[in-house]
Structure to design on (249 residues):
């Protein structure tokens, strides 16, 4: 992550989603949480905490479920790798990204926008530039997207507005804002939220952020920030570690 970084003013804190079962990352996740899987000697969690620190974000919520005690112990033993880490405990029930965010509501700085990212995504997306885009365009939510190949895409109009979602493998599609031309973009899992999202979320319990975005897209402006050309690796499977180690020293 050697790009020059701009700061991230106006952000209260961040959340790293770290509670998943990591079923694609077996056999490591039979005995460990994916968050502690190593890339060139650093855990995915450490790398994401240090990534946020590059933009002045050091107050970070981390949710835990699978082998939660290992994550908590690693954070304690390493003094949060330089960040002030607050644990959101989901040991009773994994809530997915949307439910996990809602459960952590009271841990965020009230009425301040915030950042979320996923522990198994490594990227050099410039969060300062993402926030500048967000402040200029003034949506409820902005998230990073690229033109990389995947099977699940968010769909945007030519003004970057989120209109729907498509799974090209199953043919499933959901269009909330109809348009003549809808552009497929792949989700980068780095997101800027206005705090109002907590008031507007229509669900409770276990649910995905994808559902939040799509449910809110018809009535609220949600934008995709295209950062194609930046580095991004989904460290979702053990074989992706080799790819990540070539890019992130």
């Amino acid at each position: 992550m050697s790009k020059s970084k701009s700061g991230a003013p106006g952000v209260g804190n961040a959340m790293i989603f770290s509670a998943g079962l990591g079923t694609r990352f077996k056999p490591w996740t039979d005995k460990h949480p994916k968050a502690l899987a190593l890339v060139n000697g650093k855990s995915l969690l450490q790398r994401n905490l240090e990534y946020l620190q590059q933009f002045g974000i050091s107050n970070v919520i981390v949710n835990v479920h699978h082998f939660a005690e290992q994550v908590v112990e690693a954070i304690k033993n390493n003094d949060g790798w330089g960040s002030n880490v607050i644990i959101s405990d989901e040991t009773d029930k994994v809530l997915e990204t949307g439910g996990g965010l809602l459960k952590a509501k009271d841990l965020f700085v009230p009425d301040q926008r915030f950042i979320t990212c996923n522990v198994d995504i490594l990227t050099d997306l410039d969060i300062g530039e993402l926030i500048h885009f967000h402040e200029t365009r003034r949506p409820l939510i902005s998230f990073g997207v690229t033109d990389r190949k995947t099977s699940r895409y968010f769909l945007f109009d030519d003004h970057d507005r989120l209109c729907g979602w498509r799974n090209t493998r199953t043919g499933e599609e959901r269009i909330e804002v109809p348009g003549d031309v809808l552009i497929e973009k792949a989700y980068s899992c780095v997101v800027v939220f206005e705090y109002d999202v907590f008031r507007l979320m229509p669900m409770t319990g276990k649910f995905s952020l994808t559902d939040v975005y799509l449910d809110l897209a018809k009535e609220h402006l949600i934008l995709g920030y295209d950062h194609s050309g930046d580095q991004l690796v989904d460290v979702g499977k053990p074989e992706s570690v080799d790819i990540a180690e070539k890019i992130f020293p």
